[in-house]
Amino acid sequence: MIKANGGKSLQALVDQKDDLVGYFYNETVAPHYRARTGLTAAFIPPEFTNWRDEQRAWRETAILFDQSHHMPEMLLRGPDAFRLLEKIGINSLANFTTDRAKQLIGCTPRGHVIGDCVVYRLEEETFELISSMPLLNWVHFNAEKGSYNVTIERDDPTPYNPTGRRWFYRFQLEGPNAGKIFQDAVEGGAPEIPFFRTAKVKIGGCEVLVLRHGMAGHLGAELSGPYDEMGKVRSALLAAGEKYGLQQGGTKTYFSTIFEFGWMPYPLPGIYTGEELRDYREWLSDSGWEANAQLGGSFLSDDIEDYYVTPWDLGYGHILKFDHDFIGREALEALPESKRRKKVTLVWNRDDVTKVFSSQLGDGPRYKALDFPVAYYGWPQFDEVSANDGSPVGHSCHCGYSANEGEVLSLAMLDPASAIPGTEVVLTWGEPGGGSRKPHVERHEQFKIRATVAPVPYAQSVQKLKRAAIS
Amino acid sequence: MIKANGGKSLQALVDQKDDLVGYFYNETVAPHYRARTGLTAAFIPPEFTNWRDEQRAWRETAILFDQSHHMPEMLLRGPDAFRLLEKIGINSLANFTTDRAKQLIGCTPRGHVIGDCVVYRLEEETFELISSMPLLNWVHFNAEKGSYNVTIERDDPTPYNPTGRRWFYRFQLEGPNAGKIFQDAVEGGAPEIPFFRTAKVKIGGCEVLVLRHGMAGHLGAELSGPYDEMGKVRSALLAAGEKYGLQQGGTKTYFSTIFEFGWMPYPLPGIYTGEELRDYREWLSDSGWEANAQLGGSFLSDDIEDYYVTPWDLGYGHILKFDHDFIGREALEALPESKRRKKVTLVWNRDDVTKVFSSQLGDGPRYKALDFPVAYYGWPQFDEVSANDGSPVGHSCHCGYSANEGEVLSLAMLDPASAIPGTEVVLTWGEPGGGSRKPHVERHEQFKIRATVAPVPYAQSVQKLKRAAIS
């Protein structure tokens, strides 16, 4: 299912489909999407307690997420590994020492995003890449086709992994008490670790690689190590966290934090068109990740390029650096300001959200159900967003409910003029024509939902506001 | 976890707990409850397509449910097997030929229900009992302690089964097209099978034991056979069903059909009190099914006997037969008419249901979330039901949403005077004091929901009404 290449090619699939968008809109099932919590349920429960209280723990005390199963990984080694990553990344890798991790964002020659991942520099010539199957495939392809002295090993998500296990366990420790728990859990006390730096520490008698990061404004840590040591490290973290209200987070909570902290995962990779990528499509498989995109939402175009996004659309404008030679640089430099959309949070009108709910009662019309906490059903989701006068101003993507905010939120890409906090917009919820043929989408009617533009990340902005109100 | 007996006893647990209701209300996690679809997710997905369309298929075309994993089974053999079942069952087994199955309902000496199951008479002296762990344990205990020449073998639900598999696969084929699909699937054509009779047929090259039953008014069939033949039989059924709109049903749909057809599964067994059952409690384990009841809902009494139910409360008054000697007979014969509650459907007021939903938005108060399609969170659930003047009139148990009806429905046991269709009652939704400590119940406030009494099964009554309107 997620074989990157070999067999019939993605190009063969593209050639065969007259209506590629229609195919992705109706016929495919994405190998991973965040509403499919059943996919990993054998390894991580959808809920340890209940997702509402788990969401609260993420914001109010601390939470431990298990990331050991759903993300693909790659080990890239060799004297040319760094040169390859620099060629791929639109962001600067200039100060990439072996005590750091970096986000890596890769684009097509035309400047459309393929994906983003986190890269650890484990050793001078050894890099560990985590998540974004399309980006790992793109690195893999470039490694094979370019003149790079590198080797590549891949480790697929557990549900698809032929070994039924992974190289590494991976935990995410988050929340306002995460720092204290980490401090207590590390044998001999935790070292000072600057933001996005890594260190090796001992937890539960095991050596653990830790990456210090933070979402929604507080200290967080990503912890990894050999898969067989997962249990010992988890037990030690849970023991240290008991007095700080640490909870384990299930997949429902894990996949619903993005509405608050604002990361836009897994855009449609911009690889389905253009002669310059024919080689790549011929290398990719017709049964792999890219062949099973699952478009969903009210936006329906007959041109797949209308679903492509640029780094600005995803909020990466500030880390895009023209200080090195990378694939897509010329196109991105040439993109006019007016075509650079902005990432925002949309806060959905509560009365309209309630109307979607109450339409489930009675004889109809019945609007597309808003599942909680993850409401989107496309991978990616593209819902039309319009100004009050009806003119299109962008697309809303990931959407869902935050028990912390008591709101339905979505992450959207809007034209600069509409991306100003406080702007009122209208989102079309549900698919045209009674709904697509995607089997997990029930028959439904469309409905217009009013929404207000807000900053991203939403949670942090609220925290700042609260702090400002107190001081 | 579900070991019936051995080790420390249930009596030891009862002796140890000053507040047994408080223990079951706050501290336990039931080994199986219908909202826990994650428990069987490794074997049956929560949704094959989406539960809303799967619910519709159950009503409008046909659905295939997989019952192979969640129900305990027992094989009871020997010259005294029938005599033992007659002693347990409150219903008549008089005409129990080997081409029949029967529902078996067992009570305590005081006439409180322990559980109900389906029994197949496979051979003259061989009976297969399916579901209700408390009833299987009760049969097991009586077989060991009484003077019965029988042998017993047990086969536990897959998640707890040490073999990781089952003796038999089991499918349920339901819906208005189920009869036609069955006819087409059976090699050589299906025989005429009267209601609740069994037959052996050939499907997909395999011999299949079929029980003809029907829920919600249409022909249905339960199909079983050796576990290894599951795949072949399923494929043949799906192939036969394709032109009739047959869908596979996931656990979300499976566990949400009861609101329409009205079966009340798994009452609290009335076994925790009374000297006459001390032997039984000493036989049962302190870590088994009965030790992990998980009471939930707005009704909270300090007397566990307030949760006991009689056959009338569950709607079994019409099959209770005083034509044989059985455990509980004297008590049941003596129960006055006024203490025989009636099983009804409650149709929840749509505006009040919408208010529970909209309380999830904004700053509160936030009422207990109504999860769709299965809303109950106790095993069993006991919500207080009052008349308009506030006087208590009974309890509401299983509750959830039917996309077919566009209603939130519950199954309730009400005093005869309030059990009249059309009566307006008030249900208290949510637990007192901010909610119990049950980990899967989020912090919440209580809310009063108006409801209307309706017949049970609800779906059938609606169908009859519709038929009446047409003819």
TrEMBL record, chains A, B:
Listed Gene3D superfamilies: Probable tRNA modification gtpase trme, domain 1
InterPro entries: GcvT/YgfZ/DmdA (IPR028896), GCVT_N (IPR006222), TrmE/GcvT-like (IPR027266)
Signal peptide positions on this chain: none
One Pfam family matching this protein: GCV_T
Coiled-coil ranges per UniProt: none
Domain GCVT N-terminal: 47-263
Record protein name field: Aminomethyltransferase family protein
